[in-house]
Design brief:
Layout: H1 2-31, H2 41-56, H3 58-79, E1 81-83, H4 84-105, H5 113-135, E2 140-142
Antiparallel strand pairs: 1-2
Length: 143
């Protein structure tokens, strides 16, 4: 079961990375790609083709990452114990997910304060995941 828990951890990380690419792809498009001249149309089209898929699958990637983190948390707790750093990272990831669901279904204002909090927590999660990967064995409460 430890192998499955590890796999779920990696699925969580890759799902999160794909979801986080949404912000970076839009930023690069807005800042650089949209300002390219028409003789660079091939590059613009290729970039926007890739960006379309990243934006389209942003929600699905975060759903997969959130489900995987819940499975990872459960399996790791069942077999090794509770990692404090992992629990904090999972809680923040689920908060990012809940804010995203809030934004999709309840408050569709994409300039609202919920978006700012969603992004701040998503970038904070980078540090938390890195911290968890480095120190999960040290900050472990054994069963």
């Amino acid at each position: 079961m430890g192998g499955i828990a590890g796999l779920l951890g990696w699925i969580t990380i890759w799902g999160y990375i794909i979801a986080l690419l949404n912000y970076f792809m839009k930023y690069v498009n807005r800042t650089y790609i949209s300002k390219l001249s028409n003789d660079r149309k091939q590059y613009k089209d290729l970039y926007r083709f890739v960006m379309r898929y990243i934006v389209k699958y942003h929600k699905i990637a975060e759903i997969v990452a959130s489900i995987a983190v819940i499975g990872h948390l459960y399996l790791m707790y069942s077999f090794r114990g509770l990692s404090i750093s992992g629990l904090v990272a999972a809680a923040v990831m689920l908060a990012v997910f809940i804010l995203g669901v809030y934004g999709i279904f309840i408050n569709r204002n994409m300039r609202g304060s919920w978006v700012k909090i969603h992004r701040i927590l998503a970038f904070t999660l980078i540090v938390l995941i890195g911290f968890h990967v480095m120190f999960s064995r040290i900050l472990l409460i054994r069963k």
